[in-house]
Amino acid sequence: MIEDMMTQHVSAVREFLASGQLERLSHYLTRLHPADVAEILAELDEPQDRLSVFRLLHDELAGEVLSELEPDIAHDLMGRMAPERVADILEEISTDDAAELLEDLPSSVREELITLMEPEEAADVRELLAYPEESAGRIMTQEVVRLRRRWTVEETLDYLRRLDNGAETIYYLYVVDDENHLVGVVPLRTLVTSPPDATIGQIMTPNVISVRVDDDQEYVAELVSKYNFLAVPVVDEENHLVGIVTVDDIVDVLEEEATEDIHRLGGSEPLDMPYFATTVPSIIRKRIGWLLLLFVGGTLTGSVIRHFAGIADQFAALNIFVPLLIGTGGNAGSQTVATIIRALALGEIRFREVFRVMSREATIGLSIGLVLGAIGFWRAILWHTGPHIALVVALSLPFITIWASLIGALIPIAANRLGIDPAVISGPLIATLVDATGLTIYFTIATLVLL
């Protein structure tokens, strides 16, 4: 349904462009949501068409659209426009969005645009860009409503009515003292339902959950998710209120972190740009490192096969089941890794529970292995490999699935304990370990049963 609607929008925009009805196109675009305009721009194939459409937007809408666009398209449009117009557009959006658009530009271009902005906005953007990447300070917005404890509810409501709507959100109203120290929070709902003569100090919640400017953005996302906040205040080392991180920024963080984890689980470094905007050499560089490491690690599997070459040659039917067994082990390990990494991310598992997790995964691996072993036994019988080979397969599968489950649980927990992102090493490392050790288990059992 949404896809059909967007197809209609794109077709309409193309028709307006083709017929030169730019005034009608401008009116048409103002009725759309900025996210829809951004998607329309992304669907247009010709950069010049994108630029023609974007130039029709007034500064406020243009800024919101830029914030919704993929970075490569946004930067292309910014580069095709006069720097003065770009600076005017950046002034219309929140400072965190402006900083995000500017951070990946060449330093000379970034500095030129910031210089062209109004001094107050320029100073705010520079302050955000000074914070470390992926920190709370980098993604926060400085447009935040500050209240005083001595104000009455009536005075506060009058103050809010006089605001110029520059604040990012007023769902939560933060209370500061005369030195701008964060001392409390008042939800908007509490404010509007309180007596007019009550003071902010009487209705505020004094114990405010906040984050530091240098806290990692992933920690901020976990905090917002845990407490179901719409925003979280950001303070400096002395507890001065410097900004807030809103839930829309957290959604972007969660998407970014999930994308990184998916790439790393596959044994690749995350892409810095969208897929088609990333050059082929860049993708090769991000993939080849792990592939080379796994290639070297894969020689362990070759060493195991070479070590057991005698029994493999003597009982050739054993080789039939090698792909089945190492594939099963790898799949069992991957399932465990995915479950444990997700549980770690949600805070459901802690390092002190490692033995409990191992026991649980051993039970799961044994149960699955017994089922697979029974199936493997009859599969071997139906292939006429003989009862002894079938017994080797049936015994190997439970041991391999137990081992794969244990390794799949232990490695991400240990990595997390050492401060390493579990997704970085878990998937590729487990695949390599399980292949080599699974074959060792298989041929060891074969040696004990057949010789």
Overview of the structural elements:
By secondary structure, the chain is mainly alpha-helical. It has 3 domains: 2-136, MgtE N-terminal fold (Alpha Horseshoe), CATH 1.25.60; 146-247, CBS-domain, CATH 3.10.580.10; 275-450, Orthogonal Bundle (Tetracycline Repressor, domain 2), CATH 1.10.357. Helices cover 67% and strands 6% of the residues. The chain has 22 helices and 6 strands. It has a 3-stranded mixed β-sheet. A 3-stranded mixed β-sheet has the order 4-5-6. Strand 5 (231-235) and strand 6 (241-246) form a beta hairpin. The chain is globular. The mean pLDDT is 86.
Structural topology:
Layout: H1 2-19, H2 22-30, H3 34-43, H4 47-54, H5 59-68, H6 71-80, H7 83-90, H8 95-102, H9 107-116, H10 119-130, H11 136-139, E1 146-147, H12 153-162, E2 172-176, E3 182-187, H13 188-192, H14 200-203, E4 211-212, H15 217-227, E5 231-235, E6 241-246, H16 247-265, H17 280-307, H18 309-314, H19 322-345, H20 354-382, H21 387-417, H22 422-450
Parallel strand pairs: 1-2, 4-5
Antiparallel strand pairs: 2-3, 5-6
Helix pairs in contact: 1-2, 1-3, 3-5, 5-7, 7-9, 8-10, 15-16, 16-22, 17-22, 19-21, 19-22, 20-21, 21-22
